[in-house]
Each structure stands twice: as structure tokens, then as C-alpha cells.
Design brief:
The protein is α/β, with parallel strands linked by helices. The protein is built from 4 helices and 10 strands. It binds zinc ion. The site of zinc ion (ZN) has 5 residues, from β4.
């Protein structure tokens, strides 16, 4: 997945601005080898938690849930115009960059990855502007798990 430096910076700014809530968004591209575009999304985890704490025990500091209407709109607009969803991103608050069990669960539709070609970018943010790490994870069919992958950062 190709990402422009300025777009990665945009994700960092969003992560800082939404701290101490996890931020989230979608990455799309017009073609497989094109640089991805960033679509910031609303994390509605707190609203879900407020409505139904039993089903959604976690708050936005440790979880994200992309607003479904936004997800639908971005994915359908992209696919209609012949583009593709290249990835998803979210931030981790005051902790390391890794792909958690919850992150894996969120990326799966039953026992298959919902977007097998998508790259999941995770950034760690400590405080309001201290983004310390970025990692990306992709589905590996052989191990049937997500493994760390490279992001191709371009100018
Ligand atoms: Zn996570």
C-alpha cells in the first residue's frame, strides 16, 4: 500500500486532535499501485457504549467503531468509480502499536478477513501530539493471521 508522507501526517494530526479517543478512517485508491487517499471517519464507539454497555463494553479510548453510514458511503463511492479499499487506520492511545485481538475481530467477517487485501494501519499517540509509531498489518493466508507489512511512503 502506497501512502503519501503528507497523508500519513494527516492521520497523525487526526490522531492528536481526537486524543484521548481512538481515531479511525479508511484508505482508498484509484488503482492497486496508486497512492491511497485518506478518509477520516467518526469513531462512534462512545455512542454505542452509552446506548448498550453490555454489547459494547469498551469506550473510545481503547476501541473504535467507524460510523456505518460513512463506511458504506466511502466504500460504495470508491467501488462505483472503479477504485478499491486499500486499508483502514486507527490510533492507539498511550500504548504500543500492535494488532490486538479486538483489531483482528473487527477485521474479520466470521472466519475470513472482511477485506483480504486491505492493510490495517495503527498509529500510537501519547498525549495530544506525540505520535511515536506507525505499523501496518495485512492478512497472511498461509498463517491465517495478520502479520506486519511495510507501508510504501512516497512523496
Ligand atoms: Zn487497535
Amino acid at each position: 500500500m502506497k501512502l503519501r508522507r503528507q497523508d500519513l501526517d494527516q492521520i497523525f494530526s487526526q490522531a492528536g486532535a481526537e486524543y484521548p479517543a481512538e481515531c479511525c478512517g479508511i484508505l482508498t485508491a484509484t488503482a492497486v499501485d496508486a497512492a491511497s487517499q485518506v478518509h477520516p471517519c467518526r469513531n462512534i464507539q462512545d455512542e454505542l457504549h452509552a446506548k448498550d454497555p453490555e454489547q459494547y463494553p469498551r469506550e473510545s479510548r481503547i476501541a473504535y467503531f467507524i460510523e456505518p453510514q460513512q463506511l458504506f458511503q466511502i466504500v460504495s463511492t470508491t467501488e462505483k468509480s472503479g477504485g478499491l479499499v486499500t486499508g483502514f487506520y486507527h490510533s492507539h492511545i498511550d500504548c504500543d502499536t500492535y494488532f490486538s485481538e479486538e483489531d483482528k475481530e473487527r477485521a474479520m467477517a466470521w472466519d475470513e478477513p472482511a477485506y483480504p487485501d486491505a492493510v490495517y494501519v495503527v498509529v500510537s499517540v501519547y498525549g495530544e501530539s506525540d505520535v511515536r509509531a506507525t505499523k501496518a498489518f495485512g492478512w497472511d493466508e498461509e498463517s491465517r493471521d495478520f502479520v506486519e507489512v511495510e507501508i510504501d511512503i512516497v512523496d
